[in-house]
Amino acid sequence: MKKESLNIGQAIRFFRKQEHVTQEKLAEDSGLSVKFISLLESNEKSNISIQNLANIAHALHLDLATLTSQMEPNIPESSLPNSSRQLLQALATLPEETANRLSKSFLAILQTFQAQDK
User: Fold this and answer.
1) The pTM is what?
2) Best label site of 6, 15, 55, 73, fewest CB within 10 Å?
3) Contact between 43 and 7 (Cβ < 8 Å)
4) Cα separation of 106 and 23, whole Å?
5) Contact assessment for residue 53 and residue 67, using Cβ atoms and an 8 Å cutoff
6) How far apart, in Å, are the Cα atoms of 75 and each of 4, 20, 45, 72, 106?
7) How does DSSP assign 22-60, residue by residue?
């Protein structure tokens, strides 16, 4: 089964251009290389750690939830487990600030579980 991913590069490029920031400036502000940013934006690289994604979001003056909410999934929502669909629907009904706060908390919990699995 093919592993699906989010279109990270498209979202990063959208917000970078909206902020009138060059790839070089984004790389500098996020602590990443220009080549890494370029590969992400051109979709030649789609595997990115949550920490690097958070660094990019911070450099673009965004929270992680806002950046990821602009990513278009390559997988149909119908293929998600029912509980995941319910979670997404519930977040969509909340005020943006509340949804962002909950998303950040949930991502922190996921990072904790991922660290324990290593």
Assistant:
1) 0.56
2) 73
3) yes
4) 29
5) yes
6) 6, 30, 18, 9, 21
7) -HHHHHHHHT--HHHHHHHHTTS-----HHHHHHHHHHT
